[in-house]
Amino acid sequence: MAEIKPFSKKQLMALTWWCPSSPWKNYDAVICDGAVRSGKTFCMVLSFIAWSFSEFNDSSFAMCGKTIKSLRRNVVTPVLPLLKSLGFETGEKLSENILTITYKGRKNRYYLFGGRDESSASLIQGMTLAGVFFDEVALMPRSFVEQALARCSVGGSKFWFNCNPEYPQHWFYVEWIKKLKKKNALYLHFVMEDNPSLSQKTIARYKRLYSGAFYERFILGKWVAVFGAVYPFMDDESKYCEPPDEPMEEYAVSCDYGTVNPASFGLWGLKRGVWYRIEEYYYQSRQTGVQKTDEEHYEALKSLVGSRKISVVVVDPSAASFIQVIQRHGEFSVVPAKNNVTDGIRKTSTALKEGKIKICSTCKDSMREFSLYRWESSGKFDVPVKENDHAMDDIRYFVTTVLEKSTGFAACAVAR
Questions:
Q1: Half-sphere exposure of residue 358: CA atoms within 13 angstroms, side-chain side
Q2: What angle do CA 231, 317, 229 make, to 5 degrees?
Q3: Which of 384, 361, 84 is nearest to 231 (CA)?
Q4: I need a surface site. Which of 52, 157, 314, 331 has the fewest CB within 10 A?
Q5: pLDDT band at 97 (very low <50, low <70, confident <90, very high)
Q6: Given this chain, do its domains 9-218 and 232-412 carry the same CATH topology?
Q7: In the chain, where are the structural domains located?
Q8: Alpha helix (H) ranges present in 176-211?
Q9: Which residue from 347, 364, 398 is spatially nearest to 231, judged by alpha carbons?
Q10: Furthest-apart CA pair in the chain: how many Å?
Q11: Predicted model pTM
């Protein structure tokens, strides 16, 4: 178990707001938002479990994340060793997603839920809960959150929310943070300096990773809209490089497929821990006046690859017919790309700034799109304009599906 640093003042408030001696004990909910890595999640879940044992026995609670996998990774796995060191006994039914915790003769059940989309609301219907904990509530649909809150019919039940900020018209910001008095909720805003485990060097590194609205959100913890260029730092020509000498340690291809719209394929090579976009294929049927078939685009893919051995081809998940063509030929393993746009843009921005991926000057259409790719101007949603986005999409597919190898792209590849 990692060393636990003394808690900061803000963390202590999150830990003790419900205690009998607390001036905030009569609140029905606590909301902790703010910067990434600000220490809000760990102290919140520890507080949630301590509160549940202080007030209840043989009761049911819900712990919710965007997915059960992310909930286990971000919340459950980090807190279990500490609970055990404090004398709690824990047991998990992995198949049923139930965490059972016992302490000094008391025993409570914690049901784990993923609130990925609107259909998730049905998962929690019919339960009777004494409290609910939401990790990254801003990533969950309103219907799921409200269904979970409606299940808290036990007297004395309370709600616990944490999140990083999104856009200012987001439903959670409008309905909860802007209506704290009506909701009888305590609001705690965190910055990275509220996390004692972060050194000044680490804080400075995080601050270098973001710019524009993402800096204001993830570093300053503000609910702000995004405007202007999606990747403003890529206007600097020094961000592009010459292709390194081949051969590379590994190769992969990312594809944004289009027949009427442009098709963009990127060839990537790994060298000394960096993925380089060394070549690309970009075809615009509107310019040529000729639409290519799936088979013709497949021949272009083969020409781009040449004699190189490719680990995986990542394809726009909506391009079912092109995926089938690649599978039928049996020359490449193919994976449908992960396609969360906003999250993918954030990850791509970080990968570019950290130097985990580099765009070579041979990729002229990528360079052109980087200079033109813009956020939708209303600021009401985090949506880029659907123009000049084809190389941008295939680069994003590469980052979210290949670069993040912890998600295991090889495990879901179609065998040759």
A1: 21
A2: 10
A3: 384
A4: 331
A5: very high
A6: no
A7: 9-218, 232-412
A8: 180-183, 200-209
A9: 347
A10: 76
A11: 0.78
- Please tell me whether the peptide bond between 247 and the residue prior to it is cis, using omega within 30 degrees of 0: yes
Q: What is the pLDDT of residues 391-403, one digit of tens each?
A: 999 999 999 999 9
The residues facing 197 across adjacent strands are: none
Beta strands in 205-311 (DSSP E): 240-241, 250-256, 263-271, 274-283
- Could you say which architecture CATH assigns to the domain 232-412? 2-Layer Sandwich (3.30)
Tokens of 214: 């993402």
CATH topology of domain 9-218: Rossmann fold (3.40.50)
Q: What is the DSSP string of 96-157?
A: TTEEEEEETTEEEEEEEEE--SGGGGGGGTT---SEEEEESGGGS-HHHHHHHHHT--STT-
How does DSSP classify residue 73? I
Q: Give yes or no for a contact between 271 and 248, defined as CB atoms under 8 angstroms apart.
A: yes
Strand 106-114 relative to strand 240-241, pairing: unpaired
What is the spatial distance between Cα 107 and Cα 360, in angstroms, rounded to a whole number?
58
Coil, helix or strand at residue 266: strand
334-386 confidence digits (pLDDT tens): 999 999 899 999 999 999 999 999 999 999 999 999 999 999 877 778 889 99
